[in-house]
Design brief:
The protein has about 270 residues and is an alpha/beta fold. The protein is built from 10 helices and 13 strands. The strands form 3 sheets. A 6-stranded mixed beta sheet has the order 7-8-9-4-10-11, sandwiched between helices. Strands 1, 2, 3, 5 and 6 form a 5-stranded antiparallel beta sheet that branches. Strands 12-13 form a two-stranded antiparallel sheet. A hairpin with a 2-residue loop joins strand 5 and strand 6. Helix 4 packs across helix 5. The longest helix is centred in the last third of the chain and has 18 residues. It is globular and about 75 Å long.
């Protein structure tokens, strides 16, 4: 059976500076996958390679057996949606911004959204709790509200694959949990496949079904959170002493940091 999303021997990047080194992994349909690793490990380069921002140097990326590079832009936008860290929308209302997600479905010489477009946008705005903000300017929203609007717009594209670039960075714990609960729920209810870059290892362990750990442009380890989030691999990749335990409620792995002061005190004992 063909994998839903498959990367094989994939390399991209900046020759002479940083190049992703023949990365290979698969993501089944409906899975919430996280990409983790320290700064400079290749997470963003991989993300940009998938979206097509960076040219492919070798290998291929397939979505349901079809090479992403061979898809027309309109077809690609109907299958893959992207939510970046910074939502740049300009001075438009939330509803106008979300409706932009219907652009890949416009017919030739169609200049306005149809009733169906509006219905689909409203559906996902209600799902993301942004319908109440529909008349507000995107510039007037908080960071968490902007991220939710970005997710609503991406869902309005009705994609099969959702790519998220650190959607919870710079957000407080309330907004982080709200957004990740939503993404997790969408995967279960809509069968949506999600690939997310995430810095917080504890959020990755709690919410993701599978993890891909990057190191120096290569995949260090891939598997379930239990398989990937162990102190040996974390210490090797992040060069930081940690302790890993199991959350007694969710049974998911949790990572504890240890301060330099505490380590020195432990050595004295």
């Amino acid at each position: 059976m063909e994998a839903f999303f498959k990367i094989a021997g994939f390399s991209c990047g900046y020759p002479g500076r940083f190049v992703l080194d023949r990365v290979s992994f698969e993501v089944p349909k409906g899975v919430f996958a996280g990409i983790i690793g320290p700064n400079g490990s290749g997470k963003t380069t991989l993300f940009r390679g998938i979206t097509g921002e960076l040219p492919t140097l070798s290998g291929n990326i397939q979505l349901e057996g079809q090479d992403l590079r061979q898809m027309q832009l309109r077809e690609k936008a109907r299958n893959l949606a992207v939510v970046t860290q910074q939502i740049e929308a300009g001075n438009v209302t939330v509803e106008e911004y979300v409706l932009m997600g219907r652009l890949p479905y416009r017919k030739t010489f169609q200049f306005f959204e149809t009733e169906n477009d509006h219905a689909i946008a409203r559906k996902y705005m209600e799902l993301t709790d942004t319908w109440r903000l529909r008349d507000k300017s995107m510039n007037a929203l908080s960071g968490g509200e902007q991220q939710l609007a970005g997710i609503a717009r991406a869902l309005t594209q009705e994609p099969q694959l959702l790519l998220l670039d650190e959607p919870t960075s710079h957000l407080d714990i309330t907004n982080q949990v709200q957004i990740l609960n939503l993404i997790q729920r969408l995967g279960e209810e809509l069968g949506l496949t999600v690939i997310m870059i995430v810095h917080d290892l504890n959020l990755a362990g709690e919410y993701c079904d599978s993890l891909i750990m990057m190191q120096n442009g290569k995949i260090r380890k891939k598997g379930t959170p239990h398989e990937v989030l162990n102190f040996i691999d974390i210490e090797a990749v992040y060069d930081t002493v940690v302790v890993t335990r199991i959350n007694p409620i969710s049974q998911k792995p949790v990572v504890f940091l240890i301060s330099e002061k505490t380590l020195k005190e432990q050595k004295k004992e």
